[in-house]
Specification:
Blueprint lengths: L8 E5 L4 H12 L3 E6 L2 H15 L3 E5 L5 H15 L4 E4 L6 E2 L6 H29 L3 E4 L13 E2 H19 L5 E4 L1
Parallel strand pairs: 1-2, 1-4, 2-3, 4-6, 6-8
Antiparallel strand pairs: 5-7
Length: 185
């Protein structure tokens, strides 16, 4: 399949395992250079080795906490230094935290929103000049159906993913004039 990604540069947060690593493998197999981001360099190194073995595509792993703006700025600087720009941002970092209203702590809320909402915002803001320069940029926000139709005991994930859906809709309208597509999966 040819998705027209040859020569594109993709940043995938939460890219060392699960959906993020699978996305990186697919993007690299389609000819994109991929930068995976996570908090643990050893996991990133292992994932990069796997990505390269399955795709022969350029891949790097960058340790960063997406909820820390200085980490995100440094990550974007490394990606641009290595690959020359950014065409695709996949905001995938996150955990699956689920509890009841009574048991949910403020710390759980801070961590969940920090990674999934503030992290997506920090990454999008830092990548935005490069996505604009791409003239065909894309932002993909990983969310969940629970963000639209939450069931009991799914907080804070259902809350943060609902925010991600809202960000996606707002950014899609806002960034269309720059030919940046914004979608959620």
């Amino acid at each position: 399949m040819d998705l027209g990604l040859n020569g594109k540069v993709a940043v995938i947060t939460g890219g060392s395992d699960g959906i993020g690593k699978a996305a990186a493998i697919i993007l690299a197999s389609e000819g994109a250079s991929v930068a995976i981001v996570g908090r643990t360099q050893a996991k990133l190194d292992s994932a990069v080795t796997e990505i390269k073995s399955k795709t022969d595509g350029p891949a790097i792993g960058i340790a960063a906490d997406v909820s820390v703006e200085t980490d995100v700025q440094a990550m974007v600087t490394k990606v641009v230094g290595e690959f020359g720009g950014i065409d695709i941002l996949v905001n995938n970092a996150g955990t699956s935290s689920a509890t009841t209203l009574e048991q949910m702590t403020d710390d759980q809320l801070r961590v969940d929103f920090g990674i999934k909402v503030y992290g997506a915002i920090c990454c999008a803001r830092a990548a935005l000049p490069h996505l604009k320069a791409s003239r065909a940029g894309a932002i993909i926000n990983t969310t969940t159906p629970g963000g639209k139709a939450s069931s009991a005991e799914t907080q804070p994930t259902s809350l943060s993913r609902a925010s991600g859906i809202s960000l996606t809709k707002a950014w899609a309208g806002e960034l269309a004039e720059h030919n940046i597509r914004v979608n959620t999966i």
